[in-house]
Amino acid sequence: MDSDLADAVDALKAVFAKRKLPCSFGKAPPTSVDELRKQLRVPARFRSFLLAANPERVETVTPVERIRLVPADELVKAQQLVQAPGANGSPPADWKTSWVVIGESSLLGDPYFLDVSKPDPEGDCPVYTAMSGQERWLPTLVGSSFAQFLRILSTAMEIAAGFGDAIMDDEDEDAFREALGPKVKIIDAAAMRAGHWT
Q: Where are the domains positioned within the chain?
C-alpha cells in the first residue's frame, strides 16, 4: 500500500478504536485479488488495499449513514445485487460495467462503487453512490479517489463521536451535516460540491 492509502486506512482504524466500535481488517489472498483484477478490473490501489487491509467486518456509523465496505470474497456477489431484476422484472439497464461495487449502505441498501473507467496516475478511481430502487442509476460522487473516500469516512466517524448513540432527529442530522461539510471540502472539494455528504 502506498503511504497515501496507508494513512487513510490507519485513520479509519484509529477512529473505530477511539469510538470502541468493532471492526476487522485482514489480508485477502493474492490469488483471489488477482482474480478480481481479471474479473472486475479492480484498479491497482484498491487491489493493494484488499491485500493489506481487506475489510472483513467494517461498517462506519454516523447519524445519517452506515456504510459497510465489501470484503474481497463478497465482491463478485455484490456486483450481482445491483443487477438484480427490479419491480418490472428486468435489471436497471443503465448500470455500467465499469462500476464496481465496493460498499453498501446498511440503512438504505444503496451501492458505493468505483468507476474503473476513470483511473488516475496512482491507479485509483473515483467513488460514487446511487439511490437503489429507482428506475435509473443516477451516480453522485462521494470521493475523487478511493483513498479520499476512506478519509471522508473516517472524518465523518470522528465528527459522529460527538453526537453520542441516541436516536437522531432531523435537527441533529442537519447539525452533523453542517459540521461535516467544511471538513469534506478540505479533503475533497469535488465530493463536497457533488452534495452527497451535505
A: 3-194
Q: Are 5 and 47 in contact (CB under 8 A)?
A: no
Q: Closest Cα partner for 39 from 79, 71, 68?
A: 79
195 φ/ψ sector (left φ>0, alpha ψ -120 to 50, else beta)? left
Total length of the chain: 198
The domain over range 3-194 is classified in CATH as 3.40.1580.10: yes
Give the number of other Cβ atoms within 10 Å of residue 43's Cβ.
23
Which grid coordinates are listed for 7? 494513512
Please give the model's pTM, rounded to 2 decimal places.
0.91
- 105-147 pLDDT, tens digit each: 998 889 999 999 999 988 899 999 998 877 788 999 999 999 9
E strands present in the chain: 24-26, 54-57, 59-61, 66-69, 99-105, 111-115, 127-129, 140-143
Cβ atoms < 10 Å from Cβ of 165: 10
